[in-house]
Design brief:
190 residues, PH-domain like, eight-stranded antiparallel beta sheet, 8 strands, rod-shaped
Length: 190
């Protein structure tokens, strides 16, 4: 994170740029779906295991023997894959994605993979920070920004250092809460 502070004619100009971590709502939904799918497939695997234990091995009909064992092996492999995907997606959701931002006295610009959000400080009506707890620990902020045009921007901001920079004042969005007029560019005469 890069912060530059410059004094221009006794006025304060604020600039900050860098990368920040934001959690995705879609990643949360996908990780919950992967977790539930893995649990369901594991339960189905247990059912096939119980079914295969009840097979009479003295039976000459091998088709009755092969089907439950095959289903048991396939559901066990499938549940292993889904548990791996579930654990990796939950880890990815908790960590969040890395996005570039630029903030100054006029507003903030956040660059996503397929869109760019530009929020001007003069248009901001309110900025609300709510702590989010994951597994009982406060580790992120729900940032809700409302503008004059009626737009609402919602972000899930993950602080870069747990316990050190976990206040709203340390986030890039805090610059939008200041209500002084933005600084206009001035020409310097030599």
């Amino acid at each position: 994170m890069k912060r530059d502070y410059e004094i221009l004619d006794d006025r304060f100009e604020y600039r900050q740029s860098g990368n920040m971590q934001l959690r995705s709502e879609l990643a949360r939904v996908l990780s919950i779906a992967a977790f539930l799918s893995a649990a369901a497939l594991t339960a189905l695997s247990v059912v096939f295991w119980i079914w295969s234990m009840k097979i009479d091995f003295s039976d000459d009909n091998y088709l009755n023997l092969i089907a439950p064992v095959f289903l048991l092996i396939m559901t066990a492999i499938g549940s292993l894959v889904l548990w791996t995907v579930s654990i990796l997606s939950i880890r990815r959701w908790l960590k969040g994605g890395l996005y570039h931002y630029e903030a100054d006295g006029k507003g903030i610009k956040i660059e996503f993979k397929n869109r760019v959000d530009v929020i001007k400080r003069a248009d901001v009506v309110s900025v609300d920070f709510k702590k989010i707890k994951s597994f009982g620990l406060a580790d992120a902020f729900h940032v809700i920004i409302e503008t004059v045009q009626g737009q609402t921007y919602k972000y899930c901001y993950v602080p870069p250092y747990k316990g050190i920079m976990n206040k709203p004042e340390d986030s890039p969005f805090y610059a939008l809460t200041r209500k002084e007029k933005p600084i206009e560019d001035i020409g310097i005469i030599y």
